[in-house]
# Entry
Amino acid sequence: MISPVKVWRRQKTIRDLLGKEGAIVTWTKIYTPPPQFKHIAPYIIVLVKLNDGQNVCAQLIDCIDYSLINVGKKVIITLRKLRESLLDDVVPYTIACKFI
Amino acid sequence: MKSHIIGYYTTRFGELWENSLFDLVEEAIVGALKDSDLEMGDIDAIFFGNMLSGVLENNLHAGAKIADIFGITIPIFRIEGACASGGLAFHLAHEYVQSGKGKTVLVIGAEKMTDVQPEYISQGLMAAASGEEQESGITFAGLYALMTRAYLNKYGYSKKNLAAIAIKNHAHGVLNPTAHFRKTITLTQVLESSTIADPLGLLDCSPVSDGAASLIITTDLTHIKRRGGVHILSSQVATDSISLLQRDSLIELKATQIAAEKSFVESKIHRKDISVAEVHDCFTIAELFAMEDLGFWKKGEAGERAIQYETLRNNNGPLVVNPSGGLKAAGHPVGATGIKQIGELYTQLIGHADKRQIKNVKYGLAHNVGGSGGTAVVTILGI
# Structure
């Protein structure tokens, strides 16, 4: 259940990740999504090691040419609304990655 | 004194739309009691392994539900550890009799998955992953796909090295009357199967199944004299981070390594003594990891040894893996799998495995994993 309070709590962590850069460690392309991501399937998920040592897992967005996806490619963390809001009017923004 | 398994029953695994979760639970419990020639009055406690009943059906408090069905008042515990729920339930049931709190206990693992659409199952299963992983839109196949790509890249393997596992387990499943799938598959079929999460295809993935399996464990000498049964030589649990992001390595499961090592030490059995094993092949890659992490094969070797079919029955190998068909062919009703694995070993060790009987088996090992490796349970049985 996505509640407004949960989204609000999560925003603090998401804020700290925005703008951070890193490199792709491994990746996959999802063809059988959970219900809230059906509208954008299939999509790429990358596992990224950030320059500060943390690992993150996020969708790769704004990528037109999938042949460019490779282990070691540099990416930057950005903010996206990847899920639909519920009735409570809090938008569940998430992190996503794009090529630098 | 060592505990014994003295009875086992499994339902069919598959799309069982005629049966609710607790229809399956009831069938398996009644079956296990009948198999052991016992009555519910002989049971001191029940341990129930299940993952999704809360998430998919809004049904919890399973202990009271089971008490309701059988008209009993004994202690009943529901245990959850994602796909290791069955193994964990077995572990705690074993601990209960070993500690002397009871003499005879029943373990039941069950799952009902096929009542809902696939995307809701995908979502439900992701409860076994971290919040960040869930938020990203990744699925369980996706998590294992991330690990698969890392492993294939590191050791120069291809999807063919994965396919061999699916082919072998289907060949085994043909001989198992309760398996979800009882037909062989070919390399072409596996390689051409639709992509689920690149590079994993449909036939790299264990299916969504309904099913239940139940075992009876006892230290009661009267029952042991009457039934014989199989010794539980060890049962060990280890954990690791729920999230792949926090793991030390993407190409091994530390929880399996630790649980296996503790299990071999506790049982005083050597790896070369194990001639039959049921390992956790939720995806083909998972069986490659299992063989390496359990210490049967060296790190990086599994891809090559898989295509040699070293662990296929009747191939003159010293160890047959997943004679039941594994999760891939026998099916993977999440909470039931850990119990089915141990039940298959029990059936093999007492010589009742019929068409899938492996000869001269003395010691068997079961390996049950939760999530992407956050929990591992390793059990060793002996006759």
Summary: The two ends of chain A are 34 Å apart (CA to CA). The mean pLDDT of chain A is 91. The first helix of chain A runs from residue 4 to 17. The first strand of chain A starts at residue 21 and ends at 30.
